[in-house]
């Protein structure tokens, strides 16, 4: 049924884009290659330029420099309605006086799709988003999640070359978000529709997207799969934005061929051989790369740091401890295996760091 909505997937290229609003530079030399059929995310904090970049691809913004290609064709000078790009807005923008069916059919009529094709396409689109049988309702008679699906159905019905989604789940409650994002992924796979998803929520990007561009202050910081970004962040910003990162102040020491990182306070962490040390690097490790032990415990092969437990949060599968060590607060995730957890707030503790898992990252 969804075959009539599918088409050959197209890639997207963004080349050397600079965009300013007056004196404010919002995008700085952005270069991206999004593969045909890929589910791609723009991820970053509020104000980093994600929406601006998405609207540039859709044709609602103009760059001072650079160009955008879809399916190999330069679309930079085309108006939005000639770009063959479908965009779903955060607000859905449905026609309140039209039924669901008419909302979806409207765009097809405007594009002069042959009459005989409109019915089957509307039906396929509503079925795809799980709204078959609701064609006679008006938007006001639908829940937020259902309205969001109408917006999606309306966009995929016109068979765009690429689909752009601007924070499409932000108006839904937490449980519905999880369900809809899974459905979104299934729909995208079924249509093999190249899709860009704008979000500031790392979990959302991680769970639905093939690859992510992490943005900060108008600059693409890194592009990769969710696991690549988590395991091999290019800098402290990416490390902190995808997952929780412990970042230790201190300095790099060299002792012959061996390298160590001396944390403020004097403890030296020997570094794995071959670890690149960018200038001004800081030591980063994840809360699960360190184990929490009672003071004086031994942990062969691990580096021990002494500190004091400052807080404790129960997260379900694990307990997250905050431990003050040498002026820094280190977060430690200990698996929760029953019982009340072994160290209370205020207790002295030893941290056993797996030195093989530490990273040196530029700021
Ligand atoms: N029309 C405009 N005129 C002037 N400045 C603008 C305009 N639109 C956006 N900006 C500014 O450009 C920057 C990037 O905005 P943009 O909406 O792209 O960020 P974002 O990453 O999508 O943020 P959010 O997640 O909050 O939507 C912000 O500092 C914003 O204030």
UniProtKB/TrEMBL annotation:
One of the record's GO molecular function terms: ATP hydrolysis activity
Gene3D superfamilies: 2.40.50.100, P-loop containing nucleotide triphosphate hydrolases (3.40.50.300)
Keyword vocabulary terms for this entry: ATP-binding, Nucleotide-binding, Transport
PROSITE patterns reported for this sequence: ABC_TRANSPORTER_1, ABC_TRANSPORTER_2
Residues of the ABC transporter domain: 12-242
SMART domains noted in UniProt: AAA
An annotated GO cellular component: ATP-binding cassette (ABC) transporter complex
Pfam families reported for this sequence: ABC_tran (PF00005), TOBE_2 (PF08402)
Protein origin, superkingdom: Bacteria
Entry's family note: Belongs to the ABC transporter superfamily.
PANTHER family: SPERMIDINE/PUTRESCINE IMPORT ATP-BINDING PROTEIN POTA (PTHR42781), SPERMIDINE_PUTRESCINE IMPORT ATP-BINDING PROTEIN POTA (PTHR42781:SF4)
Protein name per its UniProtKB record: Iron(III) transport system ATP-binding protein
């Amino acid at each position: 049924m969804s075959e009539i909505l599918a088409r050959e997937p197209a890639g997207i290229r963004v080349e050397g884009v600079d965009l300013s609003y007056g004196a404010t530079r919002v995008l700085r030399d952005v270069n991206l290659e999004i593969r045909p059929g890929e589910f791609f995310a723009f991820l970053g904090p509020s104000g980093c330029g994600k929406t601006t970049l998405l609207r540039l691809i859709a044709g609602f913004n103009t760059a001072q420099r650079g160009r955008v290609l879809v399916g190999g064709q330069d679309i930079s000078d085309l108006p939005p309605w000639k770009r063959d790009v479908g965009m779903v807005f955060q607000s859905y923008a449905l026609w309140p006086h039209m039924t669901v069916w008419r909302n979806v059919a409207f765009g097809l009529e405007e594009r002069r799709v042959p009459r005989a094709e409109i019915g089957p396409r509307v039906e396929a689109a509503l079925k795809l988003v799980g709204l078959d049988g609701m064609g006679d309702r008006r938007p006001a008679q639908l829940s937020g999640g259902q309205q969001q699906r109408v917006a999606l159905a309306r966009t995929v019905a016109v068979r765009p070359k690429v689909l752009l989604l601007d924070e499409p789940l932000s108006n839904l409650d937490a449980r519905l978000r999880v369900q809809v994002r899974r459905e979104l992924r299934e729909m995208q796979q079924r249509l093999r529709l190249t899709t860009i998803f704008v979000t500031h929520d790392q979990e959302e990007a991680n769970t639905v997207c093939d690859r992510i561009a992490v943005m900060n202050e108008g600059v693409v910081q890194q592009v990769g799969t969710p696991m690549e970004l988590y395991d091999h962040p290019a800098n402290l910003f990416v490390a902190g934005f995808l997952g929780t990162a412990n970042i230790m102040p201190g300095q790099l020491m060299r002792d012959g061929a061996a390298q160590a990182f001396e944390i403020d306070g004097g403890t030296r962490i020997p570094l794995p051989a071959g670890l690149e040390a960018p200038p001004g690097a800081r030591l980063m490790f994840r809360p699960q790369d360190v184990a929490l032990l009672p003071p004086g415990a031994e942990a062969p092969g691990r580096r021990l740091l002494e500190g004091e437990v400052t807080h404790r949060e129960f997260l379900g599968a694990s307990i997250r401890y905050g431990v003050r060590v040498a002026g820094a607060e280190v977060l430690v995730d200990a698996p929760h295996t029953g019982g009340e957890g072994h160290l209370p707030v205020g207790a002295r503790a030893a941290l056993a760091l797996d030195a093989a898992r530490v990273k040196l990252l530029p700021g």
